[in-house]
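[#protein-structures] MJ: dropping Alpha/beta fold hydrolase here for a structure pass
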Amino acid sequence: MTSIAADAEAWIRRYEKSPGSAVRLVCLPYAGGSASYFFPVAKALAPSIEVLAIQYPGRQDRHREPCIDDIGKLADAITGVLDGLDDKPLALFGHSMGATLSYEVALRLEKRGVVPVRLFVSGRRAPSRYRDETVHTRDDAGVLQELRALNGTSGDVLENEELLRMALPAIRGDYRAIESYRCEPGRRISCPITALTGDADPRASVDEVRDWAKHTTEDMDLTVLSGGHFFLNDHVPQVLNIISERLLPTTHS
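AK: finished. structure tokens for Alpha/beta fold hydrolase:
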């Protein structure tokens, strides 16, 4: 376990304790996002599924900590805080940057002998599908333009200068992490993948998302919903149903 991952309480948010849950779902936020994004998910899935939402450094109550702007190092740290949580089946859910990060965490967990029961990837093209994106090199106005285009950041934050000053370093660091990421060719996880995407996502085409099938030795299923990059905000009940249907039968088999 790395020193940066030593304090699990700093990294993991349990908004709804579910000691009798059949499975744990580790949720990883998008670039610039925080653990609180998954608060409604934790409430909705309890008590059958316990949600562990990951809080990256550099935001909210961890805003004084430096952001980790490297996917590999961030995955190392998260894998470290999940050490020992193998007393029940474990699944991973990530949106956008969190999807790529969850894939890297899954690879690391498998090296430790813990194979997740399923990986949920949302709003993100397959790790092997690259685009030349440089949002992290833009000035502040350019970063804000991207956030507004994707419509995933609260308007209160975008209009509040003080909140923006606090949030921008983490947002820029996250973009640097995901835009500089390159996956190691040939690596595949050993658990099934459920991919979700919006039919009008400017950052992930359906074809790019479909290529997640190349990154697992098991099955991959794809659900395409209406909407853009944050399509899941408009389809919460359906997304929750997909998670429950994929996870609960697995634990009762």
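MJ: nice. The chain has nine helices and seven strands.
AK: one more thing. The domain at 3-251 is CATH 3.40.50.1820 (Rossmann fold).
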